[in-house]
Design brief:
The protein is mainly alpha-helical and 164 residues long. 71% of the residues lie in helices and 2% in strands. Strands 1-2 form a two-stranded antiparallel sheet. The model is unreliable at 81-90 (pLDDT under 50).
């Protein structure tokens, strides 16, 4: 059976994304899209499946770096996990979903850890603010006592601090 190839316009329509987006994804994710003699892109069904996966991962909130890593891990697992001559079409979607789930879980964990760090930072900032307010009160008290001494009113500031 002869493999069917799709041009960029057809793929754009099929996936509901612009042609420039397809070119951008090819470039940034280093996708290997076949070309004809005229240099036109020729997409296979596997290429389209990969693009669908990419769009799903983007919808989950992954950036292009994370998607690129996922695709690299996927291609590495295909090379190492499958015996020569084994049909990959049945295993591919399960592996893709599994890998995507792992990435989403890791992303969620990073978000959770980021929120914890933000809470810790907020607590530390409150402590620093409280210490600064206490220091300001002590400085104000010191200045008040010093002014009183300079004006000749009452006891010296040193005797007030000592409590005599």
């Amino acid at each position: 059976m002869k493999e069917r190839y799709y041009k960029i316009g057809e793929v754009s329509e099929m996936l509901g994304i612009e042609q420039y987006t397809l070119r951008y994804l090819e470039s940034t994710l280093q996708l290997k899209i076949k070309r004809n003699d005229k240099g036109e892109r020729l997409y296979t069904e596997a290429d389209i499946d990969t693009l669908r996966l990419i769009m799903q991962l983007k919808e989950k909130g992954l950036n292009t770096t994370a998607i690129k890593m996922a695709l690299q891990n996927l291609s590495e697992s295909e090379v190492t996990d499958l015996a020569p001559g084994q049909n990959t079409s049945n295993n591919l979607p399960v592996e893709i979903v599994s890998l995507a789930q792992k990435i989403v879980e890791q992303n969620d964990e990073l978000i959770r850890m980021n929120k914890e760090l933000e809470k810790r930072i907020e607590q530390l900032e409150k402590k620093i603010e409280a210490r600064n307010e206490e220091r300001e009160k002590k400085i104000d008290e010191f200045l008040r006592l010093w002014k009183a001494e300079q004006e000749g009113k009452g006891k010296s500031w040193l005797s007030r601090l000592v409590g005599k």
